[in-house]
UniProtKB/TrEMBL annotation:
Entry's Gene Ontology molecular function annotations: ATP binding; protein serine/threonine kinase activity
SMART domains in alphabetical order: LRR_TYP (SM00369), TyrKc (SM00219)
Record's bilayer topology term: Single-pass type I membrane protein
This protein's name: Protein kinase domain-containing protein
Transmembrane segment boundaries: 441-466
Length: 696
C-alpha cells in the first residue's frame, strides 16, 4: 500500500519537473525568435534542421536555451538549402540580438568571409567560439581580445592572414587558443604570457616567424604547446622548462638553432617532445631524460645533434616511440640496461653515425630502424626480424654500405673495423705464430748468413769493379736495374714489360680497374706519388686495393720498370703484395696492390684505441718491436737473400706499411736498386738516416 502511494507521488513529481523543463525550454523572447529566423535565412539552413513553425529551443538542431533564451548555437554538421548553397557568406549579424549566447559552433560549416569586427563587442557573453574549417579569410580581428569570458577559441584550418593580434593576450579566462593551419604571419605576441589559464596553445602550420617569447614560460597552466611547422628561429628559450604541467611540446619543422636547452629536462609531466626538422646542434644535455619519467614519445629527427644517446633513454618506463633519425649521433648501442616497457617501443635510429657490433638486446624490441649507420659484424637476420639494418657495415647482409665508406668511417675515428672479414682469406697475412717460432732461427740465420753475405757482397763488388774496368762498352746482363731500361736519349720509347710475369699477379682489364676506382675519380685518389698516382678501389670480391696509375708521359718510366723487375724477383711476405697489373694501354700502366689497413708507420704511431676515450695513444712497445723486427727482416732479405743483393734506398716511415695485424709490408719498391748501383757509404747512411723511426 505504502509502496503504491510512493510510486504515484514519484510519477507526479517527475511530470511536474518535465513540465517546468518544457516551459523553460520554450523560446519566449520575440526578439530572439526573429533573430533566429534572420539567422536561419542568412545562413540558408534547411527546414529539416530548423523547422520554421516549431519552437527553436525544442525542435531546432543545435540550439540550446536557458530560461527561454538561446545560449548555444551549433550549425556544425548542418547543411544549407539549395538556395542557401548558392551564395554562402559569413552572415551572422542576427547573433548580436541573442544576448545570452555563450557558444557559437560552426566548425566545418562553410562561412566564406572574414570574422566581423563587431564579434568582439557584440557577443559579451561568448565562452566558446568554434570556427574550425569554415573557409574564413582575412585577419583575426583584434576586438576578439575584448571577449573577456572566452574560454575556447578555435580558428584552425582556415585561410586567415595577417599578424596575430596581441590583444588576444588579454583573454585571461582562455583555456584553448587554436590558430593552427592558417596563413598567419608576424611573431608570437609577448602578451601571450598573460594568459594565465591557458592550457592549449596551438599555432602550428602558419608562417609565424621570430622567436618564442621567453614569457611563454610563465604560462604555468600550459599543457599543450604546438608551434610546429612555422618559421620560428633562434634558440629555444630555457624558460619553457618552467612549464611544469606541460604534456605535449611540439616545436618540429621550424628553424630553431643552438642546443636543446638543459632546462627542458625539468618538464616533469611531459609525455611527448617533438623537435624534429630543425637546426638544433650539439649534444643532448647529460641526464636530460632522467627527469622526464612520463615520456612516451621523443622525436628529434632531422637535426644536427651529435654526441652519444643518453643512457637514461633505455629505462624510460612509458616509452613508445623514439625517433632520432637523421642526426649525427654516434657511439655504440648498450647491450643491456633496458627496463620498463621499452621492448614495446619503436626505435628509429636511422641515418646517424652509430657503430660497433650489434649484439645489443635492442633486437628484441617491437620495431627498430637502424639503417644508414655504421654497425659492423655479423648478425643473424632471424633475431633481427623486426629491424631494418640496411646501409650499415654488416657482414653477409644485402644492401650494405661500400667497404670504402665503412673503412673510412672506422679509420677516421681510429676504431677497429672487421673489414667484412673479407681481406683475411684472400691474402693470409704473415702468420704470427709461425713467425714467432721462426724468428729465433731468422736471427741466427741473419747472423750467420749476414756475415757470409757481407763477405760475398764485398767479393761481388770487387769482381764488379774488375769487370767494369775490363769490359767497357759491353752491355751488362746481370744487374736487374739494367734489364729493359731503354738506352739514354730515347725518352719516348715505351719500356718493355718483363717477359716473366709470374711475380706480377693477376691480369686485370682496364675497364675493370677504371670501374672499381669510379673512373679514377678524385674522391678515390690517395695521393700523387713520385712514381705514379695512387687510387683506392674495391674489387668485386670485396678486397680493398690500391691502384697505381703510371702515365708514362709524365712519370719516370725507369722507376716503373724497376718496380716491375723487383716484383718479378722478390717473393717475400715482408713486402707489399702486388695483386695484379694491367698493361693494356701503351702509355698508361696500372699496378694493383693489396691495401694496407693500418697505413704507414707515420700514421700508425699514434692512434685512438679506446672507444670511450678519444685521446690518442701511442703504439705499444710489443707492436713497435714487432715492426722493428719486421722491417729488419725485409731489409735483411733484400741485402742478403736476393741475388744480386738489393738496396731499398727509401727506408722511411712512409714506406714501412702495416697490414691489419701490424705486420710490416715494405712499400716504395720503385726505389729499390741493385746494390752495386749505390755506393756503399750511401747504403749505410740511408739505412741509418731515420733510426728514430722505430723508437718513435
Ligand atoms: C518538437 O519536439 C517535441 C519533443 O521535443 C515533439 O514532441 C514535437 O512533436 C516536436 N514538434 C515538431 C513540430 O516537430
Ligand atoms: C520567458 O520565460 C522565463 C522563464 O520561464 C520568464 O522568467 C520570462 O519572464 C519570460 N519572458 C517573457 C517575455 O515571457
Ligand atoms: C538586433 O540587434 C541590432 C544590432 O545590435 C539592433 O540594431 C536591433 O535593434 C536589434 N533588434 C531587436 C529587435 O532588438
Ligand atoms: C563543435 O561541434 C563539433 C561537431 O558537433 C564538435 O565536434 C566540436 O567539439 C564542437 N566544438 C566545441 C568547442 O565544443
Ligand atoms: C601539432 O600540429 C601539427 C599540425 O597542425 C600536427 O600535425 C601535430 O600532430 C600537432 N602535434 C601534437 C603533439 O598534437
Ligand atoms: C623560469 O626559468 C628561468 C630560467 O629558465 C628562471 O630564471 C625563472 O626563475 C623561472 N621562473 C619561474 C616563475 O619559475
Ligand atoms: C655530421 O658531422 C659531419 C662531420 O663529422 C658533418 O660533415 C655533417 O655535415 C654532419 N651532418 C649533419 C646532419 O649535421
Ligand atoms: C625512420 O626515419 C626515417 C627518416 O628520418 C624514415 O625514412 C624511416 O621510414 C623511419 N623508419 C621507421 C621504421 O619509421
Ligand atoms: C608497463 O606498461 C603498463 C601499461 O602500459 C604499466 O601498467 C606498467 O606499469 C609498465 N611497466 C613498467 C615497468 O613501467
Ligand atoms: C608494435 O608496434 C606497432 C606499431 O608499429 C603496434 O601496433 C603494435 O601493437 C606493437 N606491438 C607490440 C607487441 O608492442
Ligand atoms: C659483442 O660482440 C663483440 C664482438 O663480436 C664482443 O667482443 C663482445 O663481447 C660482445 N658483447 C656481448 C655483451 O656479447
Ligand atoms: C616483432 O614484433 C612482433 C609484434 O609486432 C612481436 O610479436 C615479435 O615478437 C617481434 N619479433 C622479435 C624478434 O622481437
Amino acid at each position: 500500500m505504502k509502496a503504491k502511494q510512493l510510486l504515484v507521488l514519484a510519477a507526479l513529481v517527475s511530470f511536474l519537473i518535465q513540465c517546468a523543463a518544457a516551459q523553460r525550454n520554450t523560446l519566449n523572447s520575440s526578439t530572439e525568435r526573429s533573430a533566429l529566423r534572420r539567422l536561419r535565412s542568412s545562413l540558408g539552413l534547411r527546414a529539416w534542421d530548423w523547422p520554421i513553425k516549431a519552437d527553436p529551443c525544442r525542435n531546432w538542431t543545435g540550439i540550446e536555451c536557458r530560461d527561454g533564451q538561446v545560449t548555444a548555437i551549433s550549425v556544425s554538421g548542418l547543411r544549407r538549402s539549395r538556395v542557401g548553397r548558392m551564395n554562402p557568406r559569413f552572415a551572422v549579424d542576427a547573433l548580436a540580438n541573442l544576448t545570452l549566447l555563450e557558444t557559437f559552433n560552426a566548425s566545418r560549416f562553410l562561412l566564406p568571409g572574414s570574422i566581423p569586427e563587431w564579434f568582439g563587442y557584440g557577443l559579451p557573453g561568448l565562452r566558446v567560439l568554434d570556427l574550425r574549417s569554415c573557409a574564413l579569410n582575412g585577419a583575426v580581428p583584434s576586438s576578439l581580445g575584448r571577449l573577456s569570458r572566452l574560454k575556447y577559441l578555435y580558428l584552425s584550418d582556415n585561410s586567415l592572414t595577417g599578424n596575430i593580434a596581441s590583444s588576444l593576450g588579454q583573454l585571461n579566462e582562455l583555456l584553448v587558443l587554436d590558430l593552427s593551419r592558417n596563413f598567419l604571419t608576424g611573431s608570437i605576441p609577448a602578451s601571450f604570457s598573460m594568459m594565465s589559464n591557458l592550457f592549449t596553445l596551438d599555432l602550428s602550420s602558419n608562417f609565424i616567424s621570430g622567436t618564442i617569447p621567453a614569457g611563454l614560460g610563465s604560462v604555468s597552466s600550459l599543457k599543450v604547446l604546438n608551434l610546429s611547422d612555422n618559421s620560428l628561429t633562434a634558440s629555444i628559450p630555457g624558460e619553457l622548462g618552467n612549464l611544469s604541467q606541460l604534456i605535449e611540446l611540439d616545436l618540429s619543422k621550424n628553424s630553431f638553432s643552438g642546443a636543446l636547452p638543459v632546462e627542458l629536462g625539468g618538464l616533469k609531466s611531459l609525455k611527448g617532445i617533438r623537435i624534429g626538422s630543425n637546426g638544433l646542434e650539439g649534444q643532448l644535455p647529460k641526464g636530460f631524460f632522467s627527469g622526464l619519467a612520463q615520456l612516451e614519445v621523443v622525436v628529434l629527427s632531422e637535426n644536427k645533434l651529435d654526441g652519444r644517446i643518453p643512457g637514461e633513454v633505455w629505462s624510460l618506463p612509458g616509452l613508445r616511440l623514439i625517433d632520432i633519425s637523421a642526426n649525427n649521433f654516434t657511439g655504440e648501442l648498450p647491450t643491456n640496461g633496458f627496463n620498463g616497457n621499452v621492448t614495446q617501443a619503436i626505435f628509429n635510429f636511422s641515418d646517424n653515425m652509430l657503430y660497433g657490433n650489434l649484439n645489443s638486446s635492442i633486437r628484441f624490441f617491437n620495431l627498430t630502424d637502424l639503417s644508414w649507420n655504421y654497425f659492423q659484424g655479423k648478425v643473424s637476420n632471424d633475431s633481427w626480424r623486426n629491424a631494418t639494418l640496411d646501409r650499415n657495415c654488416l657482414q653477409a647482409l644485402p644492401d650494405q654500405r661500400s667497404l670504402a665508406d665503412c673503412w673510412l668511417f672506422y679509420s677516421e675515428r681510429g676504431l677497429q673495423f672487421d673489414d667484412f672479414e673479407a681481406s683475411g682469406p684472400t691474402d693470409p697475412p704473415f702468420p704470427v705464430s709461425a713467425s714467432k717460432k721462426n724468428r729465433r732461427w731468422v736471427y741466427i740465420l741473419i747472423g750467420v748468413f749476414g756475415g757470409l753475405a757481407l763477405i760475398i757482397v764485398m767479393a761481388v763488388i770487387l769482381v764488379l769493379l774488375l769487370t767494369k774496368c775490363c769490359s767497357k762498352g759491353i752491355p751488362d746482363q746481370r744487374g736487374i736495374a739494367d734489364e729493359g731500361v731503354a738506352p739514354d736519349g730515347d725518352g719516348q720509347m715505351v719500356p718493355k714489360e718483363p717477359s716473366e710475369l709470374s711475380g706480377l699477379g693477376d691480369v686485370f682489364s682496364y675497364e675493370q680497374l677504371a670501374h672499381v676506382t669510379s673512373e679514377f675519380s678524385e674522391s678515390n685518389l690517395i695521393k700523387h706519388g713520385h712514381s705514379g698516382d695512387l687510387y683506392r678501389g674495391i674489387l668485386e670480391n670485396g678486397t680493398i686495393v690500391v691502384i697505381k696509375r703510371v702515365d708514362l708521359h709524365s712519370f719516370d718510366r725507369e722507376s716503373y720498370t724497376r718496380e716491375l723487375e723487383i716484383f718479378g724477383k722478390i717473393s717475400h711476405t715482408r713486402f707489399v703484395p702486388l695483386l695484379g697489373h694491367c698493361f693494356e694501354h701503351e702509355h698508361e700502366k696500372l699496378l694493383v696492390y693489396k691495401y694496407m689497413p693500418n697505413g704507414d708507420l707515420a700514421s700508425s704511431f699514434y692512434r685512438a684505441t679506446d672507444l670511450e676515450d678519444e685521446s690518442l695513444q701511442s703504439l705499444d712497445w710489443i707492436t713497435r718491436l714487432k715492426i722493428a723486427i719486421g722491417a729488419a727482416e725485409a731489409l735483411s732479405y733484400l741485402h742478403h737473400e736476393c741475388y744480386p743483393p738489393l738496396v731499398h734506398r727509401d727506408v722511411q716511415v712512409g714506406s714501412i706499411l702495416l697490414d691489419d695485424k701490424f705486420e710490416v709490408r715494405v712499400g716504395s719498391l720503385s726505389e729499390v736498386r741493385a746494390q752495386d748501383e749505390d755506393s756503399h757509404g750511401n747504403v749505410i747512411t740511408r739505412l741509418l738516416r731515420k733510426p728514430q723511426i722505430l723508437v718513435g
